[in-house]
Write a structure and sequence with these properties.
With about 400 residues, the protein is α+β, with helices and mostly antiparallel strands. It contains 11 helices and 20 strands.
Length: about 400
């Protein structure tokens, strides 16, 4: 049986960054990841200004920017009648006034490579955590399966960072409240051509037309596309066939007519069932939940990674002093929830607002889409830019 100070379940953005932050404080940390590698398609490749500032504080920003990436400066919203700027990161006072678009696998590998420089960091790949070890109401570690063997690791603190499908939060008895986003998203990639410079105009474009909505993201060497559908209609879209899907894409983004044939089978298209929820309590003795495991985000604003990493930074800032002494205090865990819950509630309320006021109306083909008037008020447009880039309060490393 192994023993560590902090066992982190899940090698996503939240788990890897927390592992690095604790390891560099000299704290014993073991990161358990179910997969054998960090390769994931369409899991979000966006690093917002707040995250690049944190990476800068960690000395990793330049390393990340040396890799092939693209920069998203602004987001535009195009209807049949007009084009409106939704967000403009270039107006932010920061060294990184853009969203860095970098494959998530490169980001995770970079963070893990930095963590491996510390001898007190341990990574176990292929470790599928199935059970929490509970004694006298306190979580004392986890049981996991690796190569069909059961293993156990004891920990002073167990961090549940295993994403939106976390079963451990239920096993820990943590309850959640959820909202009902009206849509699901189909993500796919298409080749990029030089002609795309003209209509993409700076990075991201959302287009609404006759009851359809699509999003195009400039990835420099390819295009990432999202096609929004009413929640629960995936089977109907799929049974209409890939040809009908290609026609729908060419209809809403005619600039892609020459390339939709690259979509030959459904396996090229990733289905995102959009969920949005939040735990009412993020902790219990010996356990803390962060990232998607604590709050699954709607894709509006693409902030899931941003908020997951900010949770990790706040957790490291608050917990490092006591974890250095191999201890964890319940009030510290409560403080992490207090600091992160309000920003999470605010962004989720913003997402719900956008879903109701824009997305649900855009997908309603029975009525012509009328742009909400608030989209035209420049002052109101600055709020989403800051909210998406930072949240209500920017988060920084305290114990560097
Ligand atoms: C299709 C899609 C597109 C997205 N696009 C964006 C985007 O553009 N921008 C954005 O910011 N966010 C996006 N997101 C959301 C984003 O991926 C998450 O918000 C973010 O990754 C959350 O980070 P996390 O570390 O909390 O969880 P995750 O990234 O989900 O990481 C959890 C990790 O835990 C591991 N794990 C799961 N169960 C176990 C277990 N039992 N034992 C051990 N390990 C386990 C998983 O393999 C995974 O590596 C997207 C999500 C999806 C599904």
């Amino acid at each position: 049986m192994e023993k560590t100070t902090c066992a982190i379940v899940g090698g996503g953005p939240a788990g890897t960054v927390l592992a690095l932050l604790l390891a560099r404080q000299g704290i014993d940390v073991t990161l358990l990841e179910a997969h054998q590698d960090f390769n994931r398609n369409f899991r979000g490749d966006t690093l917002h200004p707040s995250i690049m500032e944190i990476m800068d504080e960690l000395g990793l920003a330049d390393r990340l920017l040396k890799m092939s990436h693209s920069k998203l400066n602004r987001g535009l919203f195009e209807t049949e009648k007009s084009t409106i700027q939704l967000v403009d990161f270039s107006s932010l006072d920061t060294k990184y006034p853009y969203i860095t678009i970098l494959p998530q696998v490169r980001f995770l590998e970079t963070v893990v490579a930095a963590a491996k420089e510390y001898p007190n960091f341990k990574l176990i790949m292929g470790a599928n955590v199935r059970e929490l070890i509970e004694e006298n109401g306190e979580i004392k570690g986890v049981r996991y399966k690796k190569d069909s063997d059961w293993q156990e690791i004891r920990a002073t603190l167990t961090v549940v960072a295993n994403g939106r499908f976390s079963h451990l939060r239920e096993k820990a008895g943590l309850k959640s409240v959820s909202t009902s986003p009206p849509m699901d998203v189909l993500w796919f990639a298409l080749p990029r051509t030089q002609a795309d410079d003209r209509w993409l105009e700076g990075g991201l474009k959302a287009r609404i037309d006759k009851g359809h909505m699509a999003i195009a993201i400039d990835r420099k060497d390819s295009l990432q596309l999202g096609y929004l559908i009413f929640k629960g209609s995936y089977n109907r879209v799929r049974s209409a066939g890939i040809e009908a899907f290609r026609a729908a894409i060419a209809d809403i983004i005619p600039e892609l007519k020459d390339r939709v044939n690259h979509l030959e089978q459904w396996s090229q298209i990733a289905f995102l069932a959009v969920n949005s929820d939040r735990l009412t309590r993020w902790y219990r003795p010996g356990l803390l939940a962060i990232g998607d495991a604590a709050h699954t985000m709607s894709p509006v604003g693409g902030v899931g990674i941003n908020y997951a990493i900010q949770d990790a930074v706040v957790a490291a800032n608050i917990l490092s002093p006591s974890l250095k002494g191999d201890r964890v205090w319940l009030p510290d865990l409560a403080q992490i929830q207090r600091q992160r819950e309000l920003p999470t509630k605010v962004i989720q309320s913003f997402q719900t607002f956008v879903q109701k006021q824009i997305i649900a109306k855009a997908l309603d083909g029975d009525r012509p889409f009328k742009e909400p008037s608030f989209l035209k008020w420049p002052l109101l447009r600055d709020i989403p830019t800051r909210l998406i880039a930072y949240g209500i309060v920017p988060v920084h490393l305290e114990a560097i």
